[in-house]
Design a protein that fits this description.
heterodimer; A: 252 residues; alpha/beta; 6-stranded mixed β-sheet; globular; B: 311 residues; mainly alpha; ABC transporter involved in vitamin B12 uptake, BtuC
Chain lengths: 252, 311
Amino acid sequence: MTQIAISLNQVVVAYQSQPVLWNVSADIYKGKLTALIGPNGAGKSTLIKAMLDLHPPVAGSVSFSAAGKTDAAYSEVKKAIAYVPQKSSVDWSFPTTVLDVVVMGRYGHLGWFKRPRKHDIQLAEEMLEKVGMEAFKDRQISQLSGGQRQRVFMARALAQQADIYILDEPLAGVDIKTERIIMQLLRELVLEGKTVMVVHHDLQTVEEYFDEVVFLNRQIIAAGPTEITFTEGNIEETYRKEQTVQSGVSER
Amino acid sequence: MMDQLISLLTDYTFQVVALGTGFLGLLSGVIGTYATIRGESLLGDALSHAALPGIAIGFLLIGRKEWVVLMLGAAASGLAATALIQWMSRKRVVKFDSALSLILSSFFGLGLVLLTHIQGSANANQAGLDTFIYGQASAMLIQDVQTIAGIGAVLLLVVGLFWKEFKAYTFDPVFTQTLGFSGTLLEFLLSGMMVVVIILGLESVGVILMSALVVGPSVAARQWSDRLSGVMGLSGLFGFLSGVIGTTLSSIGHQIPTGPTIVVVLSIFVMASLLFAPKRGLLMKQLEQKKRKQKYAQQLQTRKEANEYVG
């Protein structure tokens, strides 16, 4: 029996009283690579923000099993959850080096005021090696290509040594080399028994890369193992139309 | 000329003003670095312009120039303006830049109206209230310098304490919050420090020019360093030098205002950095490109000659 790592229970998220996500319930399993799939505006990033308490749900709950705890709230297991935001979400002209960004992955473990130590820096260097970027460690981050930026973010998440990894479109606009490195590392993570959830856009590669899929368009369309759930019908249903929340109720 | 300079440098009043504006430049350089890095330098501009009506209202309430009350008024109206700007652009009432210029000029206009009204009144205490518009650095007293130094030391201590947190938050706020650091607290500290620095500078540099002192040093410093610590250190240095050199120049000449001179000196630092900084300077970039072009042309030429020789 596979264990549940993240449990979404009737989650409702609203922006300015307008519900964006409606009655979202799904389980994300431990030791599995799960893809979160849906068209633009389906609420994928919103769901992630809700899970990470960045934009808390107005109703429903999200619970995590990580760091030896089960059914814990996000705030209790924060340090065991690594989040990789879209690489376009930050300003890469920020004056800092590649290594420095990866060391930031250690900040959560250090807590307030404590400075990174030798151990943290060594760990960050190891993670840079894993993503094939060790030669770039002293490089100014503005000089990196899109794929390299994504790998830096990946190394930063690995430095967190978390149990659950949540990635927002890590393969968007990256070169093939980066895509292979990232997918291989994610595969290694789930083999170690960690949980990986990825917002994914490319339907072509879903079957090759992912164990589980969650189809989302304002509500859950389907969720389950890829070989059963990744069907023409479900894809059609998810991408067919601009879903409105409570479409069943509001369509009169 | 030399004698004049020496007698100036040993002049007590000069020393006080130079030190005061130097400290002010250093502080706004350091704290302003966070604002320019986050792309929020215009908010500093709005904050300082919008402080004017607060100063006037503070005066109207108590009828005399009590520094603390005037500064509280300045902070309150400055913050109210930035909150309004952010609210307007978040609710998509108008775009951010429109909201900014609208609120900035209407608050500043209100401040001018109130000040003119106060000046026309019979209250004799109002004399000198208009210095807040352009600032009056030459009137700085040793107590003012002590205030700036004291508050400045606290600010620098906060920057040192929260160094890692501020760095992570200004680079990637969302990620930093997922690490367990309170975004509300960090946001409050960062904008709080900004407000304090601007308030400190209002009396000597004025509401109009204060934003230059916040933005200028770090823009110049960014040209010379690729590290946050380097940018911030240089930014503080440029701010300090601008203060001291600006005060010196305005003291040597006759009837040269201190605040504006400081800003002019600062803009020379900025221009020089934008042009001449290695790697990032416009001039250096151009030179490098020219050299590269010549090198390629030469390579092509030698290849052509070689081909002709073979042919």
